[in-house]
Amino acid sequence: MSKRRNKSKSNIPNPYKLRIDEVKYNIGNKYIECVIRYVNPITNSLQISKGVANCNPEDVFNVEVGKHLAEGRAKYNMYKRYKEYINNITNNITDKYDILLIRELKHIQDIINEL
């Protein structure tokens, strides 16, 4: 008899979850750029997001801290861009349904007026 672990977890993927495909760092003189390549789950297309971390010329350059900062900024830009994409789609859908609702309310009113 086998026991199944994680019974609550589904094997069905979340259709709105972003999947990071690749993370690259471009390191310069007191400058780190993080480039994240990710898949938009709705369009299934590759997108790119960038984040930059600069160091003050008077400070000591720490590569690990710079990488974390640049990656955090790249992820922030990625999530922000995806949220704007989702909002754009849902706004278009809700606008269409608002038109349908107004049309149906008018139709109902016309039926009542005919009585």
Task: Quickly describe the structure.
With 115 residues, the chain is α+β, with helices and mostly antiparallel strands. It has one helix at residues 63-114, and strands at 19-28, 31-40, 45-54. Strands 1-2-3 form a three-stranded antiparallel sheet.
Topology:
Elements: E1 19-28, E2 31-40, E3 45-54, H1 63-114
Antiparallel strand pairs: 1-2, 2-3
Q: How would you describe this protein?
A:
The protein is of the alpha+beta class and 115 residues long. It has a single domain (19-114), classed as 2-Layer Sandwich (Double Stranded RNA Binding Domain). Helices cover 45% and strands 26% of the residues. The protein contains one helix and three strands. The chain has one helix at 63-114, and strands at 19-28, 31-40, 45-54. It has a three-stranded antiparallel beta sheet with strand order 1-2-3. A hairpin with a 4-residue loop joins strand 2 (31-40) and strand 3. The longest helix has 52 residues, at 63-114. The radius of gyration is 24 Å and the shape is elongated. 10% of the residues are buried. The mean pLDDT is 85.
Kindly provide the radius of gyration, computed on alpha-carbon positions and rounded to a whole number of angstroms: 24 Å
Number of strands: 3
So what's the overall shape?
elongated
Q: Report the top-level CATH class.
A: Alpha Beta
Strand content: 25-35%
Mean pLDDT figure: 85
**How would a crystallographer describe the biggest sheet?**
3 strands, antiparallel
Please estimate the helix content: 40-55%
What topology, given as strand order, has the largest sheet? 1-2-3
Count of runs of 4 or more consecutive helical residues: 1
Written as H for each helix and E for each strand, in order along the chain, the element string is EEEH
- End-to-end separation in angstroms reads 68 Å
Return the CATH architecture.
2-Layer Sandwich
Question: What low-confidence regions span 5 or more consecutive residues with pLDDT below 50?
Answer: none
Q: What is the CATH topology?
A: Double Stranded RNA Binding Domain
CATH homologous group name:
Rv1738
Number of domains: 1
